[in-house]
Write a structure and sequence with these properties.
Blueprint (H helix, E strand, L loop, with lengths): L3 E10 L2 E11 L4 E5 L6 H8 L7 E6 L2 E2 L5 H7 E4 L11 H6 L14 H13 L15 H14 L4 E5 L7 H12 L4 E5 L3 H7 L2 E6 L2 E6 L1 H4 L2 H8 L3 E5 L6 E5 L3 H8 L2
Parallel strand pairs: 3-8, 3-9, 6-7, 7-8
Antiparallel strand pairs: 1-2, 1-4, 4-5, 9-10, 11-12
The chain binds adenosine-5'-triphosphate (ATP).
């Protein structure tokens, strides 16, 4: 299993720091959730891993090798990314889009092998989209399209999987299904999530970003505290133990007076 290491990754744009010396390790086969307020640098961090952005300073290492020393074609095989805007302009059928996940492995005009066709079918079944195989992706609902893109990422058979808010558009059953599947996949996963309860239930570790810097990283129980919710997100919350799973569960106060009471006791 392949480790992903971000080592002092700094990104500047127009002289402003978007990411400040971010150091974060995702051990092989683990799922690390990246959380933080809007604009805290989560997508910027992911972009450095899937090479849409080049860090100003610092390095990203996959399996111990600096990404800069890996040919783009090779990292395109080992790192799969599900981005916010991925696939929104693809005028293909579902089966074709899923098969595109094999593109980094196909040299020249080689057609898909029998094994690869089976891989695509298995992924469509796992994501519950097999019945949509011949539909154009542009005709799908947001949640259906999101599952197509996850299937495409899985058939790539990457070592590292990067996901930017993959539960966007998914109903609660599909959110839980997707994240449990990631957890059992054996892949090294770095995933941006806004739903902290979902992160608590499905991530091995949670990393919190604020203002482009890492605030803390650790097991959900160590990270998701009422103090962190107040200081980083400006939200009043109580943390309880989920009665069925034992995971931390955040109960948010929705009344502004309660929030004010916690923020300014
Ligand atoms: N090319 C750029 N030039 C200037 N600023 C940028 C650029 N790209 C991103 N930013 C800014 O950097 C900050 C971090 O953006 P980023 O998309 O990484 O945040 P995020 O944590 O993913 O936010 P969200 O939760 O809203 O998706 C934001 O303030 C954004 O406006």
């Amino acid at each position: 299993m392949t480790d992903l290491v971000m080592d002092g990754v700094t990104v500047h744009a127009d002289g402003h720091p978007l990411l400040r010396a971010l150091s974060l390790t995702v051990d092989g086969g683990q799922v690390v959730g990246l959380v933080g307020p809007n604009g805290s640098g989560k997508s910027t961090a992911l972009r450095c891993v899937y090479r849409a952005l080049r860090p100003t300073r610092g390095a990203v290492r996959v399996g111990g090798t600096d990404l800069r020393d890996i040919a783009r074609r090779d990292s395109a095989r080992s790192v799969a990314a599900l981005t916010q805007d991925g696939g929104s302009d693809l005028d293909f059928t579902v089966a074709e889009v899923v098969a595109l996940g094999r593109a980094p492995h196909l040299g020249g005009n080689r057609a898909l092998s029998h094994r690869e066709r089976e891989l695509c079918e298995r992924a469509m079944n796992r994501l519950g989209i097999a019945h949509l195989a011949d539909r154009g992706v542009l005709s799908l609902s947001g949640g259906e399209r999101q599952r197509v893109l996850v299937a495409r990422a899985l058939v790539q058979e990457p070592e590292i999987l990067i996901l930017d808010e993959p539960t966007n558009h998914l109903d609660i059953r599909h959110q839980i299904h997707l994240l449990s599947m990631l957890r059992g996949s054996g892949l090294t996963v770095l995933v941006v999530l806004h739903d902290l309860n979902l992160a608590a239930a499905t991530c091995d570790r949670i990393a919190v970003l604020s203002g482009g810097a890492l605030v803390t990283v650790g097991a959900p129980w160590n990270v998701l505290t009422a103090e962190l919710l107040r200081d980083v997100f400006g939200v009043a919350a109580t943390v309880v133990e989920h009665p069925l799973t034992g995971h931390p569960q955040l109960l948010y106060a929705l009344h502004q007076e309660t929030v004010e009471g916690v923020l300014h006791p």
